Amino acid sequence: MGFSANRLFQFLQQLSSCRSYQIAYSGGLDSHVLLYSLVQLRLQFPEITLRAVHIDHGLNPDSTRWSGRCHEVCTALKVECKVIKVNAHPAKGESPEAAARQARYSALRKHISVGECLLMAQHQDDQVETVLLQLLRGSGPHGLAAMAKTMVFGDSYLLRPLLSFSRSELQDYAKKEGLVWINDPSNQDLSFDRNYLRHEILPLLRCRWPGLGQTVSRAARHQAEVMQLLDQQAHQDLNTINADENWLSVSALRALPPHRCRNLLRYWLKNQGLPLPDSFHLRRILTEVLPALEDRQPVITWFGAEVRRYRDRLYAQLPLPPHNPAIVIIWEAINPLTLPASVGGMLVLRLTQGSGLSVQQLQQGCVTVRFRQGGERIQLVDRGHSHTIKKYFQEQGIPPWQRDRIPMVYIGDTLVFVAGIGIAQSATAKPKEPSIMIEWMRG
């Protein structure tokens, strides 16, 4: 039957009741066909609202010219177009494709409106390439499920209505309508795995198996069903073990069969918004971190994430940035204090009476914010004598890698406040005395 605007609308109706669309518009063949056909539909269905967003990755010398071309096309079609510049250069150890994808999706997520659906123009050939790349990487069902037609995206949904159409069907439509699109020369660069598959391998496979696109897409749908079952099992396991959104119980994880433990870890990390570990790093978590003695503090790191253990808790987080605990920050203790990026958040003040730091005490010397060096002591209101900060951290179960990033407030050289621990007895306001409560807003 080929591609048409009416067939596109049929698929959109199957995917969602949404009628407000934001199109991820690169200006290439696929997104241009998607944009143009939706403009034609808008004539038949005036309730449809459209806008486009173009991501300028800055990776090609012509990227600025392409952005201008996309804006011109959208203006001619009477579609609002927003151009967003991103830094898509890969970090050390990161693949260029992954860096560009991460930058693109992060920008799109920030600019989607509530009630609006993001449309992306990946088609059947893209799906085939993704499945084969995941297969060659040894991926499981989550990878082989490839791209979903619909998925939650921020506060809205991401839809891929072209997954049932081949690249050749989109080209036929574009030629019939006389469309002109941008050709990115990097799509011919065979040093990229996807391009190598597209230009060198897939033509040979299609000669032998002409129905390759539909067959591989069907296999991806089967894997998506398996993925849903695995996620349901992981969700059930997550509800049965002692956990909150920040950590998992190590002893509960060890009680699970290995395959369910691996499945739960993937599910948990995905829900944390962290990159998933490959099989090597996942095996190290099971064989090195979970069996470690409680007084050990093992850590497993892969690009964009790390897993750490403290006592019976397993934590997952972004890799910690470098931090200098010797820094001293002068603070007038009047306005909120933005903390260094290695710490995060800010210290905010709230005026009160008799239950915080004495305002009079705060005026007795220079107020500074410092970080733990070791050996610091403080006597809290409900304690008979002073204890080391380390003892309080241990009592609170604060993991060691967080301790030298916890802000502490000094008046002169006297420690009067430790975030998450409390206020020194000597600096606590008397009943009805003006006082200040300090709160660490982590952001």
TrEMBL record:
Keywords: ATP-binding, Cytoplasm, Ligase, Nucleotide-binding, tRNA processing
GO-annotated molecular function: ATP binding; tRNA(Ile)-lysidine synthase activity
Any one GO CC term of the record: cytoplasm
Principal location listed in the UniProt entry: cytoplasm
Reaction catalysis annotation: cytidine(34) in tRNA(Ile2) + L-lysine + ATP = lysidine(34) in tRNA(Ile2) + AMP + diphosphate + H(+)
Residues the entry annotates as binding ATP: 26-31
Record domain Lysidine-tRNA(Ile) synthetase C-terminal: where: 367-440
UniProt xrefs under Pfam families: ATP_bind_3, TilS, TilS_C
Localization: Cytoplasm
EC nos: 6.3.4.19
Domain notes for this protein: The N-terminal region contains the highly conserved SGGXDS motif, predicted to be a P-loop motif involved in ATP binding.
Family: Belongs to the tRNA(Ile)-lysidine synthase family.
NCBIfam families for the chain: lysidine_TilS_C, lysidine_TilS_N
Name recorded for this polypeptide: tRNA(Ile)-lysidine synthase
Lineage: Bacteria, Pseudomonadati, Pseudomonadota, Gammaproteobacteria, Chromatiales
Gene: tilS
